[in-house]
């Protein structure tokens, strides 16, 4: 082998082992022990090394043959073995390594601006556009039916009811085929809108008397109750459709509050008194929501035995494995509906303007704001906490508008300006609240409840009603 290098000006020779690999990842390599000159550039040694291994350079037109150490270091073409620090007996590899892929010089503008967040971008756009179009069409049909109900309530009710049946069929098909949650939610919202419109069209809608007469609110209550029952019945005990269960519980809860308002309007013939009574009922519904959700999900807590007695196993019923999740979903629905009703009927009390003393409605609104703010921080579920906080925010904005139109702009500014820094709430997680602060918040919440209920009773003139009933 040493005679192969006779054409070079030989200095010192070094004996190394050369492995031949066509590509860097090749495992089966030919090898040979060679004596190589140490003062010759590596680029000049590589062709003769390839010839020893019977590698024809013409078979690899785009090859970039290199020598590499066993550690993976590439030897520079202009260096000698001395320059590279190769020791006697070291193992080298001759490889065909094309090197790194060069950076592209041409770019496809279409690929550069393509949204890579979603691989099915067109499908996502279709989902958004489809759901939006369906909701817009539903709202249009409902509005047209309500407008027609003032002249022909029967025809208006028939139109909205036929549309309701068509959407209900689509919802049933979507549930059977396990459609995407967004599609299910869109269809269920369509059912809620068309069901409510059908009820209002059936009794005849008069916008000027919707809050002062009981038939419209009673129709809304019946429509929401029927829709909520259909949603819950269509989802069995083992069902895992969160949206259906949550909207069903929310519809039933809203049916209760609107039913209370309709009964109060029929009894008192006064929207302010009815709104106050309904707002107080919504507070009670919010407080009872955890117990109602647990019972509705089929979870039964056995009686606690006295000291020394054992639990009665016969009182422990079998529950579905989905019962805890369903209880949480039902809780979300009840609280979303309860807090929404609380804010709506608080606004009725504020803006109806039929109460002589304006300080009682303001005091009730302030207590509702405090209650919602603290209660939202104590919720362990995101949906319930968000809805409760937004209900309080709606009342704050309503009070600010009322004070602005009454000329009390400093009060309005004092309510709205601090809301500019509302994003700072994210910096104070509920888990960081100290036990002392938590106890103070619980006491404040209890005080706000103790304020809302008596004020609501005063506004509703409930004491006078009770005393007159017994006289």
From TrEMBL:
Species, as recorded: Corynebacterium amycolatum
Entry keyword set: Cell membrane, Membrane, Transmembrane, Transmembrane helix
Please report the stretch or stretches of sequence annotated as the EccD-like transmembrane domain. Answer: 130-461
Protein topology in the membrane? Multi-pass membrane protein
Example GO CC term: the record gives: plasma membrane
Q: Which residues cross the membrane?
A: 127-148, 154-175, 187-205, 217-233, 245-268, 274-294, 329-353, 359-376, 383-405, 411-428, 440-460
Q: Where does the protein principally reside?
A: membrane
Q: Which family does it belong to?
A: Belongs to the EccD/Snm4 family.
InterPro entries cross-referenced by the UniProt entry = EccD_transm (IPR044049), T7SS_EccD (IPR006707), YukD-like (IPR024962)
Q: Quick check: keyword Nuclease in the entry?
A: no
The record's Pfam families line, in alphabetical order, gives:
EccD, YukD
Protein's UniProt name: Type VII secretion integral membrane protein EccD
Where is it located? Cell membrane
């Amino acid at each position: 082998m040493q005679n192969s290098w006779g054409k070079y000006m030989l200095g010192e020779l070094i004996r190394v082992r050369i492995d031949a690999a066509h590509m860097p990842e090749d495992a089966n390599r030919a090898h040979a022990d060679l004596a190589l000159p140490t003062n010759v550039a590596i680029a000049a040694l590589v062709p003769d090394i390839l010839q020893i291994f019977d590698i024809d350079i013409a078979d690899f037109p785009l090859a970039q043959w290199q020598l590499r150490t066993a550690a993976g270091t590439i030897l520079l073409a202009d260096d000698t073995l001395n320059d590279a620090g190769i020791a006697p007996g070291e193992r080298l590899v001759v490889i065909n390594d094309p090197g790194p892929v060069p950076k592209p010089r041409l770019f496809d503008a279409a690929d550069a601006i393509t949204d890579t967040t979603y691989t099915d971008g067109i499908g996502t756009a279709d989902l958004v556009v489809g759901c939006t179009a369906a909701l817009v069409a539903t709202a249009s049909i409902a509005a047209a039916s309500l407008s027609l109900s003032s002249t022909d309530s029967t025809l208006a009710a028939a139109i909205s009811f036929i549309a309701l049946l068509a959407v209900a069929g689509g919802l049933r098909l979507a549930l059977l085929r396990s459609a995407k949650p967004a599609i299910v939610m869109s269809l269920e919202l369509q059912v809620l809108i068309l069901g409510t419109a059908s009820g209002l069209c059936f009794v005849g809608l008069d916008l000027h008397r919707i809050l002062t007469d009981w038939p419209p609110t009673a129709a809304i209550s019946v429509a929401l109750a029927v829709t909520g029952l259909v949603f819950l019945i269509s989802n069995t005990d083992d069902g895992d459709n969160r949206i259906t269960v949550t909207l069903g519980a929310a519809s039933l809860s809203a049916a209760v509050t609107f039913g209370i308002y309709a009964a109060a309007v029929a009894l008192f013939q006064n929207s302010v008194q009815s709104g106050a009574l309904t707002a107080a009922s919504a507070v009670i519904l919010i407080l009872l929501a955890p117990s109602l959700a647990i019972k509705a999900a089929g979870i039964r807590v056995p009686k606690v035995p006295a000291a020394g007695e054992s639990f009665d196993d016969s009182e422990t019923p079998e529950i579905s494995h989905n019962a805890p999740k369903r209880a949480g979903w039902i809780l979300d629905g009840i609280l979303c509906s309860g807090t929404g009703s609380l804010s709506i009927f608080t606004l009725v009390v504020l803006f109806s303007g039929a109460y002589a003393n304006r300080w009682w409605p303001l005091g009730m609104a302030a207590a509702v704001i405090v209650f919602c703010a603290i209660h939202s921080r104590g919720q362990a579920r995101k949906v319930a906490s968000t809805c409760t906080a937004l209900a309080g925010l709606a009342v704050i904005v309503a009070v600010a508008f009322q004070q602005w139109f009454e000329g009390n702009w400093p009060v309005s500014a004092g309510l709205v300006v601090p809301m500019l820094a509302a994003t700072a709430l994210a910096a104070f997680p509920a888990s960081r609240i100290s036990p002392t602060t938590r106890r103070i918040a619980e006491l404040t919440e209890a005080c706000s409840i103790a304020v809302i209920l008596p004020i609501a009773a005063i506004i509703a003139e409930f004491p006078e009603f009770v005393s007159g009933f017994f006289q």
